[in-house]
Design a protein that fits this description.
heterodimer; A: about 120 residues; mainly beta; four-stranded antiparallel beta sheet; B: mainly beta; seven-stranded mixed beta sheet; 11 strands
Chain lengths: ~120, ~110
């Protein structure tokens, strides 16, 4: 069974940093691109970043470019999102999601709250 | 950047009703369009991929159609368990960005 479990969310002050993790199991992690998608409270879904299976290709939404860094460790079956210079508008549930041809599995999400 | 306009933003229908949601792309996206269901407090679930293909295990009352810029998602007979927010999602391969519609909240009348 495919499982994606996010962790690392919490309350952080504006300008602060946070590192999210996503532990994957039930599939060959190193064969899939992975994504981070976020959802602000009561709002819709927003793609944040993607990373190819071997980390060769990395992309970011304009809203986080230069502040967030996506990475992965295939030996540990883990995906990461380093978030720096956090703003109030980054407050959201952050989901990691697997992408084969399509984004077909999502984790349960971890809540990041940016507030003073 | 491609924009996805989804309508309506919410709807209320009776059990057994036919429900239709539309999604319009700002430019031709061929059939690179998926539909997701999100129940409160849960992660999204893929229902329809490539505009009209039913994901394995998804009930056949869900369907999708369209290509180019105009797409439709249909629930042929609304069930109580279908209460959720539905999102269309356009995808690119290079770069592999994802763009979501604004969502449609479906409620029971």
């Amino acid at each position: 069974e495919v499982q994606l479990v996010e962790s690392g969310g919490g309350l952080v002050k504006p300008g602060g940093s946070l590192r999210l993790s996503c532990a994957a199991s039930g599939f060959t992690f190193s064969s899939y691109s992975m994504n981070w998608v976020r959802q602000a409270p009561g709002k819709g879904l927003e793609w944040v970043s993607s990373i190819s299976s071997s980390s060769s290709y990395i992309y970011y939404a304009d809203s986080v470019k230069g502040r967030f860094t996506i990475s992965r460790d295939n030996a540990k079956n883990s995906l990461y999102l380093q978030m720096n210079s956090l703003r109030a508008e980054d407050t959201a549930v952050y989901y990691c999601a697997r992408r084969g041809v399509h984004v077909d599995y999502w984790g349960q999400g971890t809540l990041v709250t940016v507030s003073s | 950047d491609i924009q996805m306009t989804q309508s309506p933003s919410s709807l209320s229908a009776s059990v057994g009703d036919r429900v239709t949601i539309t999604c319009q792309a700002s430019q031709d996206i061929s059939n690179y369009l998926n539909w997701y269901q999100q129940k409160p407090g849960k992660a999204p679930k893929l229902l329809i991929y490539d505009a009209s293909n039913l994901e394995t295990g998804v009930p056949s009352r869900f369907s999708g159609s369209g290509s180019g810029t105009d797409f439709t998602f249909t629930i042929s007979s609304l069930q109580p368990e279908d209460i959720a927010t539905y999102y269309c999602q356009q995808y690119d391969n290079l770069p592999p960005a994802l763009t979501f519609g604004g969502g449609t909240k479906v409620e029971i009348k």
